[in-house]
TrEMBL record:
Protein name: MFS transporter
Classification via SUPFAM superfamilies: MFS general substrate transporter (SSF103473)
Keywords: Cell membrane, Membrane, Transmembrane, Transmembrane helix, Transport
Domain named Major facilitator superfamily (MFS) profile: residues: 19-400
Membrane topology type: Multi-pass membrane protein
A GO cellular component annotation in the UniProt record: plasma membrane
Top-level taxon: Bacteria
Record GO terms (molecular function): transmembrane transporter activity
Record Gene3D superfamilies: MFS general substrate transporter like domains (1.20.1250.20)
InterPro entries: MFS, MFS_dom, MFS_trans_sf, MFS_Transporters, Sugar_transporter_CS
Residue intervals passing through the bilayer: 20-47, 59-78, 90-110, 116-134, 146-166, 172-195, 216-238, 250-272, 284-303, 309-333, 345-369, 375-397
Length: 407
């Protein structure tokens, strides 16, 4: 029996720690998110070169979350059945295919197709690596949750930064970013080829099936989901219209500047995760949604007042709150989900999160055809405040339940 093979009943700790599997999981989610967010500073370049309107830019962005939703809805629990390692190898193949299609894109339909494939890759990778890091990290589930959150954040930060710099300083701004990501994807591929085999379901299994959440964990699941929706509402607007936010708020707009704004957001996310590593999950989520709402409101005010300083403050607040939410929500899911269904529950969590990402982007793009960006941001802030309010109320209900069960 090779290292990493599962033993014991479904809900027992089923995996042996594996440094190689943990490293491969962290590297793969970083690369997948790197590819996902690399396009953010390039949308302004696509719009200029291809003469795209805001609705068409939103369509290109929305191809990504749609791809995520399709995969996590139908194949979200795949790694619970065929094993983490095999599923991650499929994810690497999808990342490479996405890079090929997007690098070759010369029309909007091809770009949308590339973004769709990138979403499929991220959907397959994110839920699987989240479960794998909790399963295989040598220092346990808390360290696994932190590693997944940090690697996700690093991908969100370096993707826009690298793509923005390449767009500003090379002759092939819409090709080289994807070539670089494809090259980096070889790192997790090599690690996975060296990794041990892991558990897979025995007997006949149904690979394609709709993900479901166990009834017993619906309340903590809804807390984790709504908190992540607050973050993704902001990420959709910053990711799709970061150039316009920078122009109207700070009076400047370059691909590198847009990448820098997103990098600031993600840097604050990373710092918050590292600082709050020992903060209880529920407290991290509760504080995070409040800070995100404050950041969205500050950004709205910055657009109204044309204030570069407030744009920076609002972005930093969204990033800080996002770090707290990502870390706390990941732990809530990891702690509440049954071991043998972790990937499936993480996948279900991602459905609502990425539906928010795609829906906000599409609705924002359509609205910008007739209203100002300030109005769009104000409406989004209202939705974020409502989600934050539900999260806090649900947390209070969960706290009362926990106290009753402890008596």
């Amino acid at each position: 029996m090779r290292d990493g093979t599962a033993i014991g009943p479904p809900d027992a700790p089923a995996y042996r720690p594996s440094v190689v599997m943990a490293a491969a999981s962290g590297a793969l989610v970083l690369v997948a998110v790197l590819g996902s967010f690399a396009a953010s500073p390039l949308f302004a370049v696509y719009a200029q070169r291809w003469d795209l309107d805001p609705a068409q830019v939103s369509l290109a962005f929305a191809g990504y979350p749609v791809g995520v939703i399709v995969v996590v809805t139908l194949l979200g629990g795949l790694s619970d059945l065929i094993g983490r390692r095999v599923t991650m190898l499929l994810g690497v193949a999808l990342v490479l295919l996405a890079c090929l299609v997007t690098a070759a894109a010369t029309t909007l339909p091809v770009l949308v197709a590339g973004r769709f494939v990138q979403g499929m890759a991220t959907g397959m990778v994110s839920a699987t690596t989240a479960a794998a890091l909790l399963d295989f990290h040598p220092r346990g589930t808390r360290a696994g949750s932190l590693t997944h959150a940090v690697c996700t954040t690093l991908g969100m930060g370096f993707g826009p930064l690298v793509a923005g710099l390449l767009a500003d300083h090379t002759a092939y701004p819409l090709v080289l970013p994807y070539v670089v990501i494809a090259a980096v994807a070889l790192v997790p591929l090599v690690l996975l080829l060296r990794a041990p085999a892991d558990r897979r379901a025995t007997g006949r299994v149904r690979l394609v099936r709709t993900v479901r959440v166990p009834r017993a964990i619906l309340l903590p699941f809804s807390i984790a989901t709504c908190s992540l929706m607050t973050l993704n509402s902001c990420m959709a607007l910053f990711g799709t219209f970061g150039g316009r936010i920078l122009t109207e708020g700070a009076g400047t707009s370059t691909a590198g500047g847009t990448g820098g704004l997103l990098t600031l957001l993600v840097t604050m996310t990373l710092l918050a995760q590292l600082t709050a590593n020992r903060v209880p999950a529920a407290r991290s989520v509760g504080l995070g949604v409040l800070v995100i709402a404050a950041g969205a409101g500050t950004t709205t005010a910055a657009l109204h007042l044309n204030s570069g300083a407030m744009t920076i403050v609002g972005t930093a607040l969204v990033g800080t709150g996002g770090g707290l939410v990502l870390l706390g929500a990941t732990r809530l899911i990891g702690d509440s989900a049954p071991t043998h269904r972790r990937a499936e529950v993480f996948a279900a969590w991602m459905v609502a999160a990425f539906a928010t990402l795609g829906g906000t982007s599409l609705l924002g793009g359509l609205a910008l055809g007739g209203v100002a960006l300030t109005t769009v941001m104000a409406v989004a802030t209202g939705g974020i405040a409502a989600l934050a309010a539900y999260t806090l109320v649900a947390m209070a209900v969960q706290t009362r339940r926990d106290r009753r069960s402890a008596r």
